[in-house]
């Protein structure tokens, strides 16, 4: 379990590399899925086009959505977009940067699927075989006496593995459509390459300071959320420890009073006291359920302003400052406020 926890922490600390690895895995998975996928065209005039085009469009959409689902930054983006403004303004540039970053990674696997599908040409042959002009592929006596409906049924059977007559028509039509499909595939790859090159080339033409500022604060939002989650976990662990210790101390005290036993001091008691003090410090003065609920509520509705400063104030004013301005970190509700050692607070400010 500890090794698994260490691995999770490593992945969280190297999220960008991890997401790039996920994109590579999705690309390889899409190529492997296509190679093992058994293509079977319906060979019916009413369904060939739907099946062929669906094979070209539906899997890329699925890969695109899967890329969004597997990206942890989606929840951060949604939270930042929907959160109340409070004391911290929302910068649309940061939201755009995060959305573009997620979208770029999610488009890799769909682009590969479309490229492989067009290069292979099977979906194109299935979708557009009924649109062929038979006269362009030779004058066959078997075809001349067929009605329009029979011609459509004949053309719909071109992608099928069943015996097809005339065989020359099937070979010529297959080569022709596959040629068009591969041309479209190369054009698609060329367009993607040109678009990627233009993005890389145009980016330095814009103000790099604005880009770096946006990139910095997007990373800050991600790191802030991780640290907040870690702090909440640490506080919950300390809160549970103190609560359980107090419970057992109360029970043991009642049992001693009932049986008339007297406790004896020892060195282990001193060690337990030290551990209790460390757990008490980790509570940061928040010792009631209502207080913690208010901390979490204020963090969502009114995050502290990003302004760096250091204030040296007395204990009372410090308690009011932390309770009213910074979300009541050292005790919100008056009836649940406890005397704790006050610490210096850093508030962050930015015009972003």
From TrEMBL:
GO CC annotation, single:
plasma membrane
Q: Which residues cross the membrane?
A: 21-37, 49-72, 93-114, 179-199
List where in the cell it is found.
Membrane
Q: Has keyword Transmembrane helix?
A: yes
Q: What membrane topology was assigned to this protein in its record? A: Multi-pass membrane protein
Extract the Pfam families matched here: Ca_hom_mod
Which family, according to UniProt? Belongs to the CALHM family.
Q: What is this protein called?
A: Calcium homeostasis modulator protein 1
Q: What is the lineage of its organism?
A: Eukaryota, Metazoa, Chordata, Craniata, Vertebrata
């Amino acid at each position: 379990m500890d090794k698994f926890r260490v691995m999770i922490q490593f992945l969280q600390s190297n999220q960008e590399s991890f997401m790039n690895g996920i994109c590579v895995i999705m690309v390889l998975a899409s190529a492997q899925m296509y190679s093992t996928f058994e293509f079977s065209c319906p060979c019916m005039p009413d369904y060939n086009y739907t099946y062929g085009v669906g094979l070209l469009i539906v899997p890329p959409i699925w890969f695109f959505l899967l890329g969004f689902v597997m990206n942890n930054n989606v929840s951060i983006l949604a939270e930042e977009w929907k959160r109340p403004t409070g004391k911290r303004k929302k910068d649309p540039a940061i939201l755009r940067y995060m959305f573009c970053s997620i979208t770029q990674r999610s488009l890799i696997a769909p682009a590969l699927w479309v490229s492989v599908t067009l290069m292979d040409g099977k979906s194109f042959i299935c979708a557009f075989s009924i649109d062929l002009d038979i006269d362009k592929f030779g004058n066959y006596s078997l075809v001349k006496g067929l009605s329009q409906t029979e011609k459509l049924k004949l053309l719909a059977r071109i992608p099928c593995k069943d015996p097809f007559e005339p065989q020359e028509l099937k070979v010529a039509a297959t080569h022709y459509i596959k040629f068009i499909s591969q041309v479209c595939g190369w054009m698609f790859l060329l367009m993607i390459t040109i678009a990627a090159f233009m993005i890389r080339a145009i980016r330095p033409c814009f103000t790099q300071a604005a880009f770096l500022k946006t990139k910095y604060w997007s990373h800050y939002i991600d790191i802030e959320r991780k640290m907040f989650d870690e702090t909440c976990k640490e506080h919950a662990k300390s809160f549970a420890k103190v609560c359980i210790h107090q419970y057992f101390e109360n029970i043991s005290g009642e049992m001693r009073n009932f049986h008339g036993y007297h406790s004896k001091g020892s060195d282990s008691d001193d060690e337990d006291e030290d551990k209790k003090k460390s757990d008490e410090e980790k509570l940061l003065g928040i010792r009631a359920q209502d207080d913690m609920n208010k901390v979490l509520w204020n963090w969502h509705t009114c995050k502290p302003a990003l302004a760096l400063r250091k204030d040296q104030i007395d204990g009372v004013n410090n308690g009011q400052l932390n309770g009213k301005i910074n979300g009541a970190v050292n005790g919100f509700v008056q009836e649940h406020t406890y005397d704790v050692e006050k610490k210096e607070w850093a508030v962050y400010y930015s015009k972003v």
